[in-house]
Amino acid sequence: MAAVTAVAVVLGGAAPATAGGGRRNDESMCRAPYLYRPFTRTCTTGPITVNRDHRITVWTRVCDDSPWRLWDVASGRVVASGSGDTRQVVTGLYGTYRAKLTDACWRDRIGIRNY
Predict the structure, then answer these.
(1) Overall pTM > 0.70
(2) Which of the pair, 81 or 32, is modelled with greater confidence?
(3) Using CA atoms, how far apart are residues 70 and 56, in angstroms rounded to an integer?
(4) Which long-range contacts (CB under 8 A, 24 or more apart) does 38-41 make?
(5) Which CATH class is domain 20-113?
(6) Cα gap 82→88, rounded to integer Å
(7) Is the dihedral of CA 50, 55, 61, 67 positive or negative?
(8) Which whole number is the average pLDDT over 2-27?
(9) Contact predicate 27/112, CB 8 Å
(10) What are the pLDDT digits (tens) for 76-100?
């Protein structure tokens, strides 16, 4: 069973200008490569801006319990993390986010979308 940790981000003050202006139906994904530098195989998605619903869905298809994380591009703050296969909606977000498989098997995948 996948372990998942989520943290809502409250940045105080006004929300960034991108808070409600993200493109609808925007998504990004990556697949861990076959060839990699010794010891660690990773992949990182492209950036996704939240939509007016202030949420992003993160999903993984991985072997074993490969760890992953979702973070705010501007602050570097991790807003969700876990391991194993998952599909999780993270709410209360403002700004732009990326996701990463931090230690993956060959062909592991991670994706994020704002719909």
Answers:
(1) yes
(2) 81
(3) 10
(4) 40/102, 40/103, 41/101, 41/103, 41/104, 41/105, 41/106, 41/108
(5) mainly beta
(6) 10
(7) positive
(8) 47
(9) yes
(10) 999 999 999 999 999 999 999 999 9
